[in-house]
Every structure is written in structure tokens, then in C-alpha cells.
Design a protein that fits this description.
Elements: H1 8-22, H2 29-36, H3 40-43, H4 50-68, H5 80-96, H6 103-110, H7 116-137, H8 143-167, H9 171-182
Helix pairs in contact: 1-2, 1-4, 4-7, 5-9, 6-7, 7-8, 8-9
């Protein structure tokens, strides 16, 4: 195999794909190297271990959502209705074009009981998602109610992602977004 130069970010992107499709435990460093067109040893120039790749993958997705989706809640140029519609659209754009479901949802089930660093990052991601939705909802609902609804919407979205992945149909997933929008 020809060795090529690959960036840390490219390794993370390929790892994320593999972790989502194969699972964390069923993905080896060799699988990651092969997906990147590298020899296994080359990955260690960027990461110390598979656990480091896993944690950095979780952070990578979390940062993506914070920058591109959660930040919609802070927009001052949009009404709450426009914010929630854009929030749902951006979430849909991500999950409808992303094979394997939600990395953080998948790893929450697979490894969070055994890896506390993963668990904390996953909790932080879901808390940020809930807080962003609650921020949009707070103008219509009391603080406690807005957080309860936001948590319910995150749970509904995660369940719908799982069902969409399982059944290969986005119909029920899209209904969750419609439901979320209807509350604003």
C-alpha cells in the first residue's frame, strides 16, 4: 500500500465514519489506517491510542454541532420560530446525510459505562443540545418547562435517528422535527 500524508482531521473524519457504522469496539487501528490509506504506525504520529481517537472524535462532532447548530439559538437576527426551523433543518441536514446514525448516541450505549472520559463528553454534547433548544423555547415557556421539552425533543430525535437507521426510512424522523417546530 502506498503511504500518503493524512491530517489529524482526516483521520478523525474516517474514524467517525467507522465508529458509526462498525461500532467502537469493532473498529481497529488497522481499520482506521486502511480507511485513511495509511499504515497503522502512521496514525500514532497523530494519536497515542484508539481511545484518544475516540474521545477526539466525540469532541469533533460536539464542536461541529456547537458551531453549526447549537449556535442558532444565539442568533439575534431571527425570531424564535425562525431559529427552531433553522435548528431542525441543520440537524436534519446532518443526520439525513450521515450513515450510521449519531456517533454520540451510539457510543453512549456502547462504551459510556466503561469509559468515563467518553461518558462526560457525551453528556456535555447532549446537555449543550438541550440547552440550545431550551434557550429558543424559553420565550414561550417557563425555564423548567423549556428544559423539559428540550430534553424530550433530544430524546425523540435520538430515538428517531435509531429507528431511521434500523428501518432505512426517514419518515418518522422528519415527524419529530415537525413536532419540535410546532411548539414554538
Amino acid at each position: 500500500m502506498a503511504v500518503k500524508k493524512t491530517s489529524r482531521e482526516e483521520i478523525l473524519k474516517e474514524s467517525i465514519k467507522l465508529f458509526k457504522i462498525r461500532g467502537y469496539y469493532n473498529t481497529s487501528m488497522v481499520n482506521i489506517a486502511d480507511a485513511c490509506g495509511l499504515i497503522k504506525g502512521s496514525i500514532y504520529h497523530h494519536f497515542k491510542s484508539k481511545d484518544e481517537i475516540g474521545l477526539e472524535s466525540l469532541k469533533y462532532i460536539h464542536n461541529y454541532f456547537a458551531e453549526h447548530i447549537y449556535s442558532v439559538a444565539d442568533r439575534v437576527d431571527l425570531s424564535d420560530k425562525e431559529k427552531i426551523v433553522l435548528f431542525v433543518k441543520k440537524t436534519d441536514d446532518y443526520f439525513l446525510h450521515s450513515e450510521g446514525g449519531c456517533l454520540l448516541g451510539n457510543l453512549a450505549l456502547e462504551v459510556s459505562s466503561e469509559n468515563l472520559a467518553f461518558k462526560e463528553e457525551i453528556k456535555s454534547y447532549f446537555s449543550a443540545w438541550e440547552n440550545a433548544l431550551a434557550k429558543i423555547l424559553k420565550n414561550k415557556y417557563a425555564n423548567e418547562k423549556s428544559h423539559a421539552l428540550a430534553r424530550e425533543f433530544v430524546a425523540l430525535t435520538q430515538g428517531a435517528i435509531m429507528m431511521m437507521t434500523l428501518y432505512g426510512s426517514s419518515e418518522d424522523y422528519l415527524k419529530v422535527g415537525e413536532k419540535i417546530i410546532s411548539f414554538v
